[in-house]
Amino acid sequence: MVTRTSQERFRTDKGVFDAFTNKNLYELKKRGYFDELESPIFVGKESNVFSAKRGKKKVIVKIYRVQNCDFKRMFQYIKQDPRYDFLRNKRREIIFSWTQREYKNLLRAEKGKIKVPKAIAVRSNILVEEFIGDSEPAPPLKDAYPENPQKFFNALIKEIRKMYKIKLIHGDLSSFNILNYNGKPVLIDFSQGTLTKTPNSEELLIRDVNNIIKFFKKLGVKADFDKIMEKIKK
Description:
Helix content is 38%, strand content 20%. Helix 3 (71-78) crosses helix 4 and helix 5 crosses helix 7. It starts with 5 loop residues before the first helix and ends with a helix. Residues 1-15 have low confidence and may be disordered. The strands form 3 sheets. Strands 1-2-3-5-4 form a 5-stranded antiparallel sheet, sandwiched between helices. Strand 4 and strand 5 (126-130) form a beta hairpin. It contains 7 helices and 9 strands.
């Protein structure tokens, strides 16, 4: 019987990971952040999201694909964040900073008691975070409408308000990156998250709120944009 090495087990069908990513996955595994990758939860153009075993529990492993990422678009977003004003327009530096930024945003959100996955580890283009769900991952809002839309909407606005209090804007809120976990919202995908002192933060907050209002309007929730913004900022 042939026994594959840990590195070889990361070489999935159709060559999803390059050698650099394989090495980083192996290092994270060696340090105990996860045992084995399991099922793909999301496979996109720029990133792949997997569930992974960690003892008797599960974690999420998010991998940004270095060769596929639109680093020019990423740079346009991240260069306005004062935490990354040192960043040069170079592919790898941008992608690694993008991943690190998501990690830092999750840490900040967790300290602010916002319902987000706990950040566990980051290495170059890979982020390890808490698994949200039971045996299966919690579904995104777009696939699992809440039984009580008004209650869910109110809870979501509270989370956005808590973020604003710690000077953090999600920047990309939609029904794709809000999980419905047991009828309560959990916010994910913080790579576009930025500080309120960032020049375009107000624009991003307005977009977030408009996206939420538009989605919940379809579910019968009536919300006034100005009143919601006032509630978030008070």
